[in-house]
């Protein structure tokens, strides 16, 4: 089967990703672990290599040519991120090490100084650990309480319970845009509007959203939005925190050090302006430059075209896998992104992952840093196939055949 998406050239796209030419145990690599981390195109690899070979120096601290060139490349990437998510201005874009640090920054710099006993933070049952543990920590530090919106058997938020739990005690809502364990696309605009009606700010964990669907933080109305570079074809160790300018200005620095200051004396320190106030120390310069190149690459193809292609893969894969006896899909929300979590009656997910690897198929097996989701569906773990712009319908067939072979070997 081939893609029906008009003018979507998946062959050309695949040619941009050198690692897809690899063989695993003598078989062509079928990379379906994109929810954990995507692969990098030549354009991103070349951008990072060019920085190191021709321009590298520390940024914002030198008058010499290399420092100036590195600073321009670094600052240009921030401009690209601003446009990509439609932030109102570049100083609403803070570079971090990833979505995890972005969420921790908000927890410690925004939430912790404002919370007290009796206050509540509202999250959902489908959150990644990175959007659970920071709020547990800040609740322990302040005496606030963590409230959790349950999810249905289909893997969708129980919206009536969300509205019941949202109250005058709620001081922050933090919700995942797309579930990494279920693929559910949450109605974040509806959630944000309801929270704002009570004056409650909202953080959105967008790590699984930005590679797959267009995100406009102004249209959403998100107060904070977090994502990671390595899930959108960029380097590891770099991420973004978007925050509304007013809120970021009210927040104290998260860490102290170089570049987040205007002046320092033993009597006191004057902090730098946004966004540098939150970017202490030498940043991940190559990571930021690579992220900028990844955004260029994604925008050239178009998120609309990518989303359509991945939706086609999801529909086809869902149909193929449903026909396999003994396979159960975990999470069948009406609105899903391109991933399928599943279990087999007679095979542990770790064994599934090992057996599929022998066929050249890379999937993720485990709890996906979402143990409460596993508990909700009464499974120890799942196998997860997650799709990207470069995956093909033929690869779905390989996946299905490898699953059938695995079942046969364990029968």
Quickly list its features:
411 residues; 17 strands; Aspartate Aminotransferase, domain 1; Aspartate Aminotransferase, domain 2; alpha/beta; seven-stranded mixed β-sheet; 2 domains; four-stranded antiparallel β-sheet; 14 helices; disordered N terminus
Outline the fold blueprint.
Blueprint: H1 10-15, E1 23-24, E2 27-28, E3 30-31, H2 42-55, H3 65-85, E4 93-96, H4 99-111, E5 120-124, H5 133-142, E6 145-149, H6 159-165, E7 170-176, H7 188-197, E8 202-205, H8 217-220, E9 224-228, E10 239-243, H9 245-250, E11 261-265, E12 268-271, H10 285-301, H11 303-322, E13 327-330, E14 339-344, H12 349-358, E15 361-362, E16 364-366, H13 371-376, E17 382-386, H14 393-410
Parallel strand pairs: 3-15, 5-6, 5-7, 7-8, 8-9
Antiparallel strand pairs: 1-2, 4-10, 9-10, 11-12, 13-14, 14-17, 16-17
Strand content: 15-25%
Structural class: alpha/beta
Count of individual helical segments: 14
The CATH homologous superfamily name of the largest domain equals Type I PLP-dependent aspartate aminotransferase-like (Major domain)
On the 0 to 100 scale, the average pLDDT is 94
Helical content class: 25-40%
Query: How does CATH name the architecture of the largest domain?
Result: 3-Layer(aba) Sandwich
Low-confidence stretches: 1-5
Distance between the termini: 29 Å
**CATH topology tier name of the largest domain:** Aspartate Aminotransferase, domain 2
Number of domains: 2
Our Rg estimate from Cα atoms comes to: 22 Å
In CATH's first tier, which class of the largest domain applies?
A: Alpha Beta
Largest sheet: 7 strands, mixed
* Strand order, largest beta sheet: 4-10-9-8-7-5-6
Number of strands: 17
| Overall body shape | globular
